[in-house]
């Protein structure tokens, strides 16, 4: 649909002005103006090239949405001094029977199938070509990447697991507390916080804050840009919090020993199990 | 009449032309005869494939760059599958009972490590893979943050992702108890006591979770059920929504 359709510039300008005065969106107004102007041009020049198509297109064209711009053009054209007289039904008269409001009955003996009809407002037709961007076939380009990543991961895990055994200590004994007792590593940041804050804060308030804060992030950060240069504050804050959590986790993992007291891992050993 | 054995290539061609083969491999499959490396067959290969449930026919070129995603989401999903497979294997040899006289769970763990064929390897993969998955999911979240991929229209998928992060932590934590050794019960005791201080609702939640006031045999059964069926079930549902929404929200985010 890239080729330029000849149109009546006067009708176009008048309809556009009328539509904008009505408060229509600019894109919608331009679409309606163009639609009215093309019809006016065809009417004036007796172009009926689309006539054979009309019966099939009529279902869509006869919709009220399509009628409205034409009607607007009728009102606008005389005001602009245009001598074009427009009938409310543009182009070829609609051949489709008027709607009855009843579901249609299939012809006897006809194949059993259903049809889907869509009503498209004329302004919707104007720009349907969306820019697809720079795309490549999923197969093989993305597919091969995922396969390589998968096999690298599988190979790494298999080799690592062949040489490093996961820990299994002695049978659980509820009466013998190991020293130190640590939570799994992903909770050690919280356990470390418990050294500094009241359990209500470290165990309830901060985890709740993390959970709710993470979930609400897209609604807090309303900056629409994804360019790192436009997001300095968000990136700085997130990085600080993330590093804060990572630091606490590392301290809890490697720098805490018997009695959960501070140890230097290189001199006093590591008190940490995965 | 001379009967000559067909050449291997010709035989493979006949297999590939059989009704059965063609019923399995749809047009566009690379395993089907006549696959050509054209744009059309490449599209069909994606479209007529189970992969089409995850990926569109075409993806944005910048998304292929390793430094954009680091494959973290995909690797997390792969680890989830790997953990499911190794977990099913381990379930054949494990009973979640821990009565005082005979802690079946612990002796089953010892049997897995000593008597089950490849038992120690599978158990190691399961354990290390689980820690790695917590790691990759966390890093995936950081990647999504840094690329701004949680911004409209992807806000809801970010929330689904946050839920998945906490489900991953839950899966890892519930699995941590199952070996029933000194490490596991005390890590779980410490871990649950972190959030069990106050208010009353947290204490009640802890009681419900532990099936008592301390970690005991009742806890083991509860956490086993959570670990092998309840949490994976919920996770799969959230994963399905997560993947579906990626495509509905316009594929991979960016480019930056």
Describe this structure in words.
The complex is a heterodimer of chains A (274) and B (256). Chain A is mainly α and 274 residues long. Chain A is 54% helix and 1% strand. Chain A folds into three domains: 92 residues; 31 residues; 97 residues, plastocyanin oxidoreductase (Helix Hairpins, Orthogonal Bundle), CATH 1.10.287. In chain A, helix 2 crosses helix 4, helix 7 packs across helix 8 and helix 7 packs across helix 9. By secondary structure, chain B is mainly alpha-helical. Chain B contains eleven helices and one strand. In chain B, helix 7 packs antiparallel against helix 8, helix 8 packs across helix 9 and helix 8 packs antiparallel against helix 11. Chain B is flat and about 80 Å long. The model of chain B has no long low-confidence stretch (mean pLDDT 92). Classes of the chains: A mainly alpha (274), B mainly alpha (256). Chains A and B meet through strand 1, helix 6, helix 7, helix 8 and helix 9 of A and helix 3, strand 1, helix 5, helix 6 and helix 7 of B.
Quick one: CATH class of chain B? Mainly Alpha
Q: Which structural category do the helix and sheet elements of chain B fall into?
A: mainly alpha
The helix content of chain B, as a percent range, equals 55-70%
CATH architecture of the largest domain in chain A: Orthogonal Bundle
Largest interface: A-B, 72 and 88 residues
Given this structure, which CATH class of the largest domain in chain A is correct?
Mainly Alpha
Order of helices and strands of chain B: HHHEHHHHHHHH
Mean pLDDT of chain B, to the nearest integer, reads 92
CATH architecture classification name of chain B: Up-down Bundle
- Count of DSSP helices of chain B? 11
User: Would you identify the regions of chain B where 5 or more consecutive residues have pLDDT less than 50?
Assistant: none
**CATH superfamily label of the largest domain in chain A:** plastocyanin oxidoreductase
Instruction: Tell me the CATH topology of the largest domain in chain A.
Output: Helix Hairpins
The percentage helix of chain A is: 40-55%
Number of helices of chain A: 10
State the separation between the terminal residues of chain A, measured CA to CA.
63 Å
């Amino acid at each position: 649909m890239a080729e330029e359709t000849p149109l009546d510039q006067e009708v176009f300008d008048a309809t556009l002005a009328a539509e904008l005065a009505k408060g229509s969106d600019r894109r919608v107004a331009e679409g309606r103006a163009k639609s009215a102007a093309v019809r006016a041009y065809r009417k004036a020049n007796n172009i009926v090239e689309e006539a054979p198509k009309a019966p099939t297109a009529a279902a869509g064209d006869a919709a009220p949405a399509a009628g409205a711009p034409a009607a607007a053009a009728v009102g606008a054209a005389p005001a602009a001094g245009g001598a074009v007289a427009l009938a409310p039904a543009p182009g070829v008269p609609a051949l489709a029977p008027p709607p009855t409001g009843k579901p249609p009955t299939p012809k006897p003996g006809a194949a059993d199938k259903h049809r889907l009809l869509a009503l498209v407002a004329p302004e919707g037709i104007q720009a349907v070509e969306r820019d697809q961007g720079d795309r490549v076939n999923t197969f093989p380009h993305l597919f091969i990447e995922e396969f390589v990543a998968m096999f690298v991961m599988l190979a790494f895990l298999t080799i690592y697991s062949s040489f490093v055994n996961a820990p299994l200590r002695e049978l659980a004994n509820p009466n013998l507390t190991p020293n130190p007792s640590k939570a799994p590593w992903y909770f050690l940041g919280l356990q470390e916080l418990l050294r500094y804050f009241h359990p209500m804060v470290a165990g309830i308030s901060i985890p709740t804050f993390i959970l709710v804060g993470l979930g609400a992030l897209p609604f807090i950060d309303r900056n629409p840009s994804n360019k790192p240069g436009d997001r300095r504050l968000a990136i700085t804050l997130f990085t600080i919090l993330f590093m804060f959590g990572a630091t606490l986790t590392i301290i809890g993992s490697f720098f805490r020993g018997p009695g959960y007291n501070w140890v230097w891992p290189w001199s006093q050993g590591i008190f940490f199990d995965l | 009449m001379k009967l000559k054995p067909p050449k291997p290539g010709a035989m493979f061609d006949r297999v590939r032309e059989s009704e059965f083969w063609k019923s399995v491999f749809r047009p566009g499959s690379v395993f089907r005869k006549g696959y050509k490396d054209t744009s059309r067959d490449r599209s069909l290969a994606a479209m007529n494939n189970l992969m089409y449930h995850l990926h569109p026919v075409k993806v944005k070129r910048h998304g292929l760059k390793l430094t954009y995603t680091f494959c973290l989401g995909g690797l997390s999903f792969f680890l989830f599958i790997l953990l499911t497979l190794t977990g099913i294997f381990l379930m054949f040899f494990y009973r979640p009972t821990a009565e005082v006289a005979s802690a079946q769970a612990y002796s089953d763990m010892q049997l897995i490590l000593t008597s089950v064929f490849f038992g120690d390897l599978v158990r190691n993969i399961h354990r290390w893979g689980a820690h790695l998955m917590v790691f990759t999911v966390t890093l995936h979240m950081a990647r999504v943050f840094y690329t701004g991929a949680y911004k409209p229209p992807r806000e809801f998928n970010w929330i689904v992702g946050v839920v998945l992060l906490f489900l991953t932590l839950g899966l890892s934590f519930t699995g941590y108890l199952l070996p029933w050794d000194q490490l596991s019960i005390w890590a779980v005791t410490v871990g649950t006591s972190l959030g069990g201080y106050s208010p009353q609702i947290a204490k009640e939640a802890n009681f419900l979770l532990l099936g008592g006031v301390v970690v005991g045999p009742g806890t083991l059964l509860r956490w086993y059920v959570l670990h092998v069926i309840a949490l994976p079930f919920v996770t799969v549902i959230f994963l399905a929504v997560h993947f579906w929404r990626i495509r509905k929200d316009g594929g991979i985010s960016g480019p930056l």
